[in-house]
Amino acid sequence: MACADCFRGGTAIGTPQGTVETHHSYPTYVATPPSTSTTPTKASTVILFTDAFGLKLVNNKLLADTYAAETGCRVLVPDIIPGGPMSTDVLPLMDTMMSPVSLWDLKGQVWRAWCAVRAIGFALPFLWYATPNFKGCLERCLKFARAVKKDIADEGKGGKLGVAGFCWGGYQATNLCAYPAVEGTEERLVDAHFCAHPSLVKTPDDFVNAVVRFKTPVCIAHAGNDMALSNQQMDETEAALRQKTGSGDGEGGYHWQIRRYEGCGHGFAVRARPESEVEGKGAEEARGQAVEWFKRWL
């Protein structure tokens, strides 16, 4: 991935309410609005492209449940990462690796080195098969999204397609916005986009293309302390968007939003650490940012 924080973070507590079904050849977690929800149910669908941990990390399922309950949309979380998602066993290993150890603490140094060897054993296969900007990653996500878009159209209920992406999935969600629903047409694939701390996006080009190509509403939650996507990169992205599209409030038919979460690191919107009040607050606000965006456009 792009930084050590891609494989770090907290594990949420909760019981997923959705089901795992097969959608277009992929095991897919399906979250639907609960009967107790006060939000009107919609015919639209959101595809949530996860971080490196995929369906192995309960956080991703719980977030899908929340999106479904608060937007009224069905949420699909495909197990789509080539070679499979990263094992959650790497989370404590990375924490040990990144924790400071005194030079004179021989036992601590040996333990940290052993954790590093084990973490590398997990990371290398993942990076070999599934680095987010590898062509094969986007190709399979594009095929899946187009199939879901067709399903929505076939239902004939006026539903739309939203995409949400985090870390690994942030790259996929953002770049999908520049593709048509059907190759060779001018019908946009994505009707609303949200991403948080995307990995390995090319700035400002990927974001500009996401907005400009089909005038897709694009929403970005940026971590102020992101090791993979600096504040300077996002400042340059915002400047490029303003130059090409205006304010993002509808001028010229373009809608986009960038919000920076100061004090939050890469991964905060899905893997906030329970002990971090700043990240916890940021995760809740980013959830609200995504929900309001999808409610507006889907």
TrEMBL record:
Residue intervals of the Dienelactone hydrolase domain: 155-296
InterPro entries: AB_hydrolase_fold, Dienelactn_hydro
UniProt entry keywords in alphabetical sequence: Hydrolase
Source organism: Byssothecium circinans
Protein origin, superkingdom: Eukaryota
Example GO molecular function: hydrolase activity
Xref: PANTHER family: DIENELACTONE HYDROLASE, DIENELACTONE HYDROLASE FAMILY PROTEIN (AFU_ORTHOLOGUE AFUA_4G08790)
Protein name as annotated: Alpha/beta-hydrolase
Stored Pfam families: DLH
This protein's record includes keyword Ribosomal protein: no
